[in-house]
Task: inverse folding
């Protein structure tokens, strides 16, 4: 008797979704659109940096130095030999990100002295970009030094060795994170569809009078959306793999498990929020939104967690996406499996169970 | 004219009656600025370093010391097994591993230039790059320190002529990412609040049926629009001020440029987001739908606004798309005013773009409005 009603609840949800083609379109197309758009957009690799060069020496040496800069795609020379007074306005008009100034008597100073500085003024409003530019210029300076001097003695060599992702493609890092963000959006979207539709149609009461345990009602509502969410996640992972060449080095089984658990956790959060904000739509939406921002900003998606102050690192520990990202990056890029990733897996499962349990309790109390 | 005044007064009464609005306008911005201002940082700090020292000599110890007795690096531990080091990297327990070979000191003094391996996790390419750059700085200092101890190389060193790069970092000399992020947060808050609040407000009227009541009054469509815009512009303006104060008091980040220019630009910007909000509400039937559409627009515009990913890095096609995003312009404007003190004369293009958006969306909304009701 109980089993039949349970199955009926699950099937009912599926029918509801099927009969709403608009929503169906949105939940299928939107994730794809986001993946493609942001997969291409989110990159920290810089290019075409607008640069101004000021050559105060006009000597073979200075020209050789500038040639090194012009030879790379990274810098795009937009102007030359501007006036000192114009520097401020150049930056305020955003005509260039950096100005390279080769001092007067550069060649002579180079010949006579140990080291000769080349001045570079960088717009540091984006400190990340500024560092990047500075490092790149240091490399060019080193290259020039090697060409100017017969041999540069170093006492020891430092050889960098990059594990995984040796080409340092930022898409390998971002795309799994993007998957996490998109799935969270979809989960919260799905939950509110589920709950609100019920309330709008007033069928809530009908379910409540049936002889089913509240936990079964909750579970019956969640399962169809877990399956839909899972389907969507597989879809975007396939696209991610073929479009962005993100590898899947580890176990597919582990990958699928983590997807299901993550979607479940997203749905549990949404469900829980909806059970505690019965009356106010605003409150529910606002709180749902409150889950989006931490997921994007504090889960390690873009910004490293280790750089955050300690209390905020604790906050990121309760964001499901944080743990999911460790799993998905580990499985896809490093080939780690359940053996190493069981803590994160356990946390995701625990969160879902906890929240679903709380929702059931809340639900039961509204019955009485 | 007087009709608009009454309409504005009604809106304010509605706002004040809804405590959620007060929370959204005053408390949430401060909380978000605190939370995000501290959390979001592209600075790479607290880099944990693991060591494999196969030489255990005074020089290798000096090397370890140089890398760990440093502001950016934290010593995590040593092991004599490279595989353990790699496992530490995998688990995220360290971000940098150093492997010092056997006979390091001996080879160094004899001028044989031994190789020290710097092992990095390449998954987060950006952080790996930054870690490598910091490590390189330590290396340079060490090279200078040890050169006198290596006679075979010293003569060659004396004959060197090298160039160095002397960077001058303008507008943010300490290279703190928080200076860049906080104005961005303010822009995000303004967008969020203006978008959502307008979309919800009109749809709420639709749901409650009060919209039809407004329609039978002698109010014209244009006046209705203006009556909705003014209170929300004021709310947005208040929000900007609260945010500016919060940013200043909490992070010590104050506006370098002209506050008035910022006020003007935020008023224009809110106009464009209010326009989109109202346009959204003409498309939605329920408050929930309105919130979703506004929400999706927000997420799209946030990631394409230049907030955390510079627009210049994006492929050209996508850069083209960002021109349709009003938030992109405001992001530029607020950062320019906050950090560089850029005057209005260099920001007018962005202002015009935002204004065009505002006007276009209002016109569109007005047109849709009449089609639905009338």
Result:
């Amino acid at each position: 008797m109980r089993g039949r009603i349970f199955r009926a609840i699950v099937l009912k949800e599926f029918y509801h979704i099927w009969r709403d083609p608009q929503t169906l379109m949105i939940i299928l197309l939107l994730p794809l659109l986001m993946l493609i758009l942001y997969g291409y957009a989110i990159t920290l690799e810089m290019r075409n940096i607008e640069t101004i060069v000021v050559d105060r020496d006009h000597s073979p040496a200075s020209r050789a130095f500038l040639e090194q800069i012009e030879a790379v795609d990274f810098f795009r020379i937009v102007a030359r030999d501007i006036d000192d007074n114009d520097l401020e306005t150049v930056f305020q008009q955003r005509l260039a990100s950096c100005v390279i100034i080769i001092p007067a008597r550069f060649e002579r100073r180079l010949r006579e002295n140990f080291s000769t500085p080349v001045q570079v003024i960088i717009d540091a409003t984006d400190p990340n970009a500024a560092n990047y530019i500075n490092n790149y210029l240091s490399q060019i300076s080193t290259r020039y030094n090697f060409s100017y001097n017969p041999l540069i003695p170093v006492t020891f060599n430092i050889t960098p060795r990059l594990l995984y992702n040796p080409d340092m493609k930022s898409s390998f890092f971002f795309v799994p994170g993007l998957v996490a963000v998109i799935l969270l959006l979809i989960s919260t979207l799905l939950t509110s569809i589920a709950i609100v539709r019920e309330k709008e149609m007033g069928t809530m009461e009908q379910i409540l009078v049936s002889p089913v345990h509240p936990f079964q009602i909750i579970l019956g509502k969640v399962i169809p959306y877990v399956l839909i969410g899972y389907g969507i996640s597989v879809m975007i992972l396939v696209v991610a793999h073929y479009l962005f060449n993100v590898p899947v080095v580890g176990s597919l089984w582990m990958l699928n498990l983590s997807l299901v658990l993550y979607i479940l956790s997203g749905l549990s959060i949404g469900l829980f929020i909806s059970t505690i904000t019965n009356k106010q739509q605003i409150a529910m939406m606002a709180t749902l939104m409150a889950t989006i921002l931490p997921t994007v900003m504090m889960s390690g998606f873009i910004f490293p967690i280790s750089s955050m102050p300690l209390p905020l690192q604790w906050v990121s520990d309760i964001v499901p996406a944080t743990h999911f990202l460790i799993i998905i990056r580990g499985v896809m890029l490093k080939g780690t499996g359940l053996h190493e990733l069981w803590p994160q897996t356990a946390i995701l499962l625990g969160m879902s169970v906890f929240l679903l349990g709380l929702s059931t309790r809340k639900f039961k109390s509204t019955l009485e | 004219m007087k009709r608009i005044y009454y309409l504005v007064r009604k809106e304010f009464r509605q706002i004040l009656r809804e405590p959620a609005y007060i929370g959204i306008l005053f408390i949430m911005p401060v909380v978000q600025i605190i939370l995000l201002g501290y959390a979001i940082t592209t600075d790479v700090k607290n880099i944990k370093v693991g060591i494999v020292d196969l030489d255990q000599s005074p020089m290798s110890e000096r090397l370890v010391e140089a890398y760990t007795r440093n502001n950016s690096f934290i010593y995590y531990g040593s092991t004599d097994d490279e595989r353990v080091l790699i496992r530490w990297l995998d688990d995220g327990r360290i971000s940098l591993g150093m492997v010092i070979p056997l006979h390091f000191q001996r080879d160094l003094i004899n001028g044989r230039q031994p190789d020290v391996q710097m092992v990095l996790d390449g998954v987060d390419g950006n952080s790996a790059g930054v870690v490598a750059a910091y490590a390189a700085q330590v290396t340079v200092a060490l090279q200078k320190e040890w050169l006198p101890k290596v006679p075979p190389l010293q003569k060659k060193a004396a004959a060197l002529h090298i160039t160095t790069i002397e960077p001058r970092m303008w507008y943010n000399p300490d290279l703190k990412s928080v200076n860049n992020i906080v104005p961005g947060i303010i822009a995000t808050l303004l967008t969020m609040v203006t978008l959502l609040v307008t979309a919800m407000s009109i749809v709420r009227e639709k749901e409650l049926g009060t919209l039809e009541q407004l329609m039978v009054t002698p109010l014209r469509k244009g006046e209705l629009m203006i009556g909705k815009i003014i209170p929300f512009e004021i709310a947005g303006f208040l929000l900007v001020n609260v945010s500016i104060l919060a940013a200043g008091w909490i992070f010590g980040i104050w506006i370098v440029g002209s506050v008035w220019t910022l006020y003007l630009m935020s008023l224009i910007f809110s106009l464009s987001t209010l326009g989109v909000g109202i346009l959204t509400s003409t498309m939605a039937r329920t408050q929930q739908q309105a919130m979703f559409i506004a929400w999706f627009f927000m997420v799209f515009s946030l990631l394409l606004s230049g907030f955390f990913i510079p627009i210049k890095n994006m492929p050209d096609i996508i850069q083209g798309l960002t021109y349709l995003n009003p938030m992109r312009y405001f992001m530029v404007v607020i950062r320019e005013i906050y950090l560089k003190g850029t005057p209005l004369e260099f920001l007018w293009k962005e202002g015009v773009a935002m204004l065009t958006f505002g006007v276009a969306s209002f016109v569109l909304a007005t047109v849709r409005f009449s089609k639905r009701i009338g």
Residues 84 and 159 of chain A are 40 Å apart (CA to CA). The radius of gyration of chain A is 28 Å.
